[in-house]
Amino acid sequence: MIVRENFEIVFRDRDECEFLLALVMFRDVVICEINREKGAEHMEVEFFFNDPLYNDLNIKFPLDDFVEALSVAKEALMDR
């Protein structure tokens, strides 16, 4: 699901998780993962910037676009 230019939300499941996860991507790079394993009111976000893959990548984008991407992922997860 494309949210804004350069942002995409990808839903996936994982064996150890009861609910779907939402990956927030920027230019095909996973920025974070949102889960609702602790309930819809206590969703968690995990960022993946410590991986050596990102060492030479300059990830800079408008904050409002990122907040909108997170909002869309949260709303979609609440309905699943």
What does this structure look like?
This protein is α+β, with helices and mostly antiparallel strands and 80 residues long. It has one domain. It has one helix and five strands. The protein has one helix at 63-78; strands spanning 2-4, 7-12, 21-26, 29-35, 44-47. The model has no long low-confidence stretch (mean pLDDT 84).
Give the ordered list of helices and strands.
EEEEEH
Coarse structural class:
alpha+beta
Count of strand segments: 5
**What would the average pLDDT be, to the nearest integer?**
84
Number of H- or I-type helical stretches = 1
Separation, N- and C-terminal Cα atoms: 15 Å
What topology emerges from the helices and strands here?
Layout: E1 2-4, E2 7-12, E3 21-26, E4 29-35, E5 44-47, H1 63-78
Antiparallel strand pairs: 1-2, 2-3, 3-4, 4-5
Give me a quick take on this structure.
With 80 residues, this protein is α+β, with helices and mostly antiparallel strands. It has one domain (2-78). It has one helix at residues 63-78; strands at 2-4, 7-12, 21-26, 29-35, 44-47.
